[in-house]
From TrEMBL:
Domain of life, per lineage: Eukaryota
Xref: Pfam families: Hemerythrin
Stretches assigned to the Hemerythrin-like domain: 4-124
InterPro entries for this protein: Dimeric_xanthone_biosynth (IPR053206), Hemerythrin-like (IPR012312)
Protein name, UniProt field: Hemerythrin-like domain-containing protein
PANTHER family assigned: EXPRESSED PROTEIN, HEMERYTHRIN-LIKE DOMAIN-CONTAINING PROTEIN
Species name: Endocarpon pusillum
Length: 220
């Protein structure tokens, strides 16, 4: 989960850092990139509340065990919605791009979002205390199993690259997850990290990492 959340944070940072340096010709693609990041965060939290958290509740037998995380989601919901609203206005030509306005909106939810993304992995780790030899709780397997239920073809082609291509795995925790997470190898990994991003490839030039999980220079 820490890797996933790091990806969302890097996505946020890639938007925040590049927005002031854009040229007018970048705006259309950048707006789509921002919308993809928003959708990624939104779907991630929808998946948690709809599939993962209920699965954890069932496995532990503790009703409401993840209610604190759901409450945290609410702390940045309104700011994220304003972010989306502004981007959709831009995408429809109803507003003129202003990086000042974009960053102003992002500032309204940056702290609660960051606080949540950095604290939730510890909350999930705490679930291990309910795991026993007779009834083990494998959070990674649980997350992967429930995650499959929220993935659609539309998500794969219009959103997933912003997640996979902002995921740094080479340096994080001395590379212990490099080649391990996301759990893809061979042709499947190539398809997801290099093949799929050929759709809307002009959007993904704003990502912060290479397909093999290394940090790269930002596009602008």
């Amino acid at each position: 989960m820490a890797l996933s959340h790091n990806s969302l944070i890097r996505g946020f940072n890639s938007i925040y850092q590049q927005a002031p340096r854009l040229s007018p010709s970048d705006h259309k693609d950048f707006i789509c990139y921002c919308l993809a990041w928003h959708n990624c965060v939104e779907k991630h939290h929808d998946y948690e509340e709809t599939f993962l958290f209920p699965a954890i509740e069932k496995a532990t037998g503790v009703k409401g065990i993840m209610d604190g995380e759901v409450e945290q989601h609410a702390t940045f919901h309104d700011g994220m919605e304003e972010f989306k609203k502004y981007l959709l206005q831009l995408n429809r030509g109803k507003s003129k791009f202003s990086h000042q306005r974009l960053l102003q909106i992002m500032d309204t939810f940056s702290k609660p979002l960051h606080d949540h993304l950095t604290s939730e992995p510890q909350s999930l780790l705490a679930v291990r205390r309910y795991s026993t030899a007779e009834k083990p709780i494998d959070l990674v397997a649980m997350a992967l199993d429930t995650g499959k239920k929220s993935v659609t073809a539309g998500f794969v082609f219009s959103t997933l690259p912003v997640f996979l291509l902002n995921m740094e795995t080479v340096q994080f925790e001395d590379g212990m997850w490099h080649g391990v997470f996301p759990p893809m190898t061979g042709p499947a990994k190539w398809v997801m990290t290099k093949g799929v991003p050929r759709w809307h490839q002009s959007w993904w030039r704003f990502v912060s990492c290479t397909p093999d999980g290394r940090l790269k220079h930002l596009a602008v």
